[in-house]
Design goal:
The protein is an alpha+beta fold. Strands 2-5-4-3-1-6 form a six-stranded mixed beta sheet. The longest helix has 11 residues. It is globular.
Length: 137
């Protein structure tokens, strides 16, 4: 199983809305690198849900429930979506400031590829974030 991180601006689509919806397709990705990460996602992969622009924190864990398919919001063949479902809110959100301060996360794609809305997370980074959140996963 692989691990990922997706970003959403809370005023556009928040964790709370995601929980109310019970599932969603992850659309609006218009960057080829981020699109390729969506294509790499497999059913059952775990995903951190990150509030970007406001909040700047990882707030929850989602799961991929359907692998990539044509983005229904566009006719352009280049873009795909995956279906996600919420798994749980983190015990304590992990802020970008905390991530930047943790040496074990210095190479995290969230920091190195900060413009991308979808990034991979290594198993070690996943465990470290859960530890910082006071969560067992």
């Amino acid at each position: 199983m692989a691990h990922w991180l997706v970003k959403s601006e809370p005023f556009k689509y928040s964790w709370d809305q995601f929980v109310k919806d019970k599932k969603t397709f992850w659309d609006g990705v218009r960057n080829y690198a981020a699109r390729n990460f969506l294509r790499d996602m497999k059913k059952g992969d775990e995903v951190f849900f990150y509030h970007s622009n406001e909040g700047l924190e990882i707030v929850g864990i989602a799961r991929v429930i359907k692998e990539s398919y044509q983005d229904p919001t566009t006719d352009e063949d280049a873009w795909v979506v995956v279906d996600l479902e919420p798994v749980k809110r983190l015990a304590n959100p992990v802020t970008l400031k905390q991530i930047k301060a943790e040496p074990k996360l210095a190479s995290m794609a969230l920091l190195k590829l900060s413009r991308l809305s979808v990034t991979p997370v290594t198993p070690q980074e996943w465990k470290q974030i859960l530890t910082m959140a006071g969560d067992k996963g």
